[in-house]
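Collaborator request, handled under Task 6.
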Amino acid sequence: MKFLFVHQNFPAQYQHLIMHLLARGRHEVVFISEANQNAMPGVRRVLYQSQPGSQESVHPAAQDLDRGVRRAELVAAAAANLKRLGFTPDIIIGHHGWGEMLNLVDVYPGVPMLGYFEFYYWPDGQDVDFDPEFPADPANRSRIRTMNVINHLAFALEQPGQTPTKWQQERYPDWMRPGIDVLPEGALLDRCRPDPKARRQGFAIGDFRVAPGEKLVTFVARNLEPYRGAHTMIRALPGLLRARRDVKVVMVGGDDVSYGGRCPTGSWREHFLKEIAGRYDPARVLMPGQIAYDLYVRMLQRSDAHVYLTYPFVASWSLREALATGCAVIGAEVDPVREFITDNRNGLLTPCLDPERLVEQLLRLLEDRKLADRLGAGARRYAERHLDMKLHIAAYARKIHALTGQRI
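Structure tokens returned to the collaborator:
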């Protein structure tokens, strides 16, 4: 089969599906994206460079749409060039979030398209105004609603859609849900697996060392920002480190912003560390930025307690990988996390914005090894039943067969 993938950030959510296709040795894979340093042998990349026009004359509520239709034009031009060179895919698979796929039905009429519908924006009831520390401007309600224009245009293409969790599917209006299937995403269970020996050994990131007898608490987010509860974790540090002298903490994540607003005084990490300055021992805390994947997995394997916090928003891959690694996970008590964690069965739940309660839950795990072991074993069992990458690929395979009549 001939596959055309579309996502601004190659290979994005499609890495494992593409690896499966390439391993079969009988598929042609082309990927349209913006340039980056990622590479996969066997994938033919076609690059475009977004060049947003001046936003001065565009109403603020329409700026996402303006950027989206510009991307759509560039991607359609790249696809038209592919077509002139003789490439017509059997299926197009891509992410609708940035508008890139809106015009591909004109380039390749009749070719089935499977589009990723990631998130439907609402001005209340989920992430917006969840955190009273950062209240939403009432004037932004109309802008938040118009952020769904690309969602609506993509749905109007009358092509099948998919999303990775039931919670994300349920964010969409009733009339859209039947057109958006849940295709769960998983983890590589052979790489993200428990290592009982790891917790009996030391661990190091650079000069930061965790001795065999010390406790390691971990936190992971793409960027350390309020949307992922970094402020709650940082505010928990003084109480946690004061209660136990044998604890060290690693918080992995960059200083950029993935979701929500930017910090007016620099990075969110710096902002919240200033708040607790003088009340904790910085020598027992490491914030290394983003780290290599193999080191990240070894860190999870060594972790005595892993914290995953988030607003009611899309769940991170790190949650899936922590569960697969058999971590004793403390997760945010919000619906998208409840889809993965059942309290006291395969993890513990805690209010996302309550540092004191987080300290209590961490101490509970650190002081009760039997509880932590039971929850870690439950996390791995859950991953084996629900997060196996083979299940992820099988769901895609069934959908691709339904749309094309061909098997992968």
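The cover message to the collaborator said: "The mean pLDDT is 96. The longest strand covers residues 215-223. Please let us know whether this matches your experimental observations."
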